[in-house]
Amino acid sequence: MHRRFFLSAVRCLTLAGVVWATLPGAQAQPRYTVSAEQLQQAAAQRFPLRYPVAGLLNLDVQAPRLRLLPEQNRLSAEMAVEAAGPALERSHAGTFEMDFALRYEASDRTIRAHQLRFKRLRFADLQPAASELLNTYGPALTEQSLHEVVVHQLRPQDLALADTMGLQPGSITVTDKGLVIGFVAKPL
Fold first, then answer.
1. What distance, in Å, lies between the first and last C-alpha atoms of the chain?
2. HEC per residue, 99-119
3. 96 Cβ neighbours under 8 A, 6+ residues apart
4. Which of 181 and 136 is assigned the larger pLDDT?
5. Could you point out which of 77, 105, 155, 170 has its C-alpha 20 to 30 Å from the C-alpha of 56?
6. 139: preceding bond cis by omega (within 30 degrees)
7. CB 121 within 8 A of CB 92
């Protein structure tokens, strides 16, 4: 009886693997895709944000506009930012740019931004000295605004088949249309 159950289970798992591998566009390993729109929606949920800078001014950062960078396997983010406070005579609108890689966090099934790189903080109507002062805070603003920000959360049902096959999310590849999450064997 146990032998028949075991053989039936092996046949079912083999059949599931064959069906998975023969689906149109499927490869030998299962994959999960996340569209650019899904990424944009998830990232926008944490904004707007306000960052005070040493009692001198506040930087108000709006939701990022994400751009896929498949050739670098990264995403870039451009955010509208407004600077105002005692150090400035009036409010100034500008843009803040950065890019980042992605990693999977198993504890909550999320895809998160990491390896952040500050690009620039631009204010067209600011004096060069004030603009330079603000750019000294750029790397700190980068860390605070998007470090470990969740760009997508996988649902239990998204991982159900992979989980039954003993797999977990592994590689994250940025494509022209979004992300492709590859799966690897779970550690024993």
1. 28
2. EEEEEEECCCCEEEEEEEEEE
3. 61, 78, 79, 80, 81, 120, 121, 122, 138, 141, 145
4. 181
5. 77
6. no
7. no
178-185/31-35 β-pairing: antiparallel
| CATH number, domain 27-185 | 3.15.10.40
Question: Closest Cα partner for 126 from 158, 80, 167, 90?
Answer: 90
Tens of pLDDT, residues 9-34: 434 443 344 344 434 554 556 789 99
Burial of 125 (0-12, 13-18, 19+ CB in 10 A): exposed
* pLDDT tens per residue across span 48-68: 988 887 777 888 999 999 999
**Band of the pLDDT at 172, cuts 50, 70, 90?**
very high
The candidate with the shortest Cα–Cα distance to 43, out of 180, 178, 183, 182, is: 178
Q: Please tell me the distance from the alpha carbon of residue 63 to that of residue 61, in angstroms, as a whole number.
A: 7
Cα-trace Rg, the chain: 22
Torsions phi, psi of 184, nearest 5? -130, 165
Query: DSSP letters along 34-61, please?
Result: EEHHHHHHHHHTT--EEEEETTTEEEEE
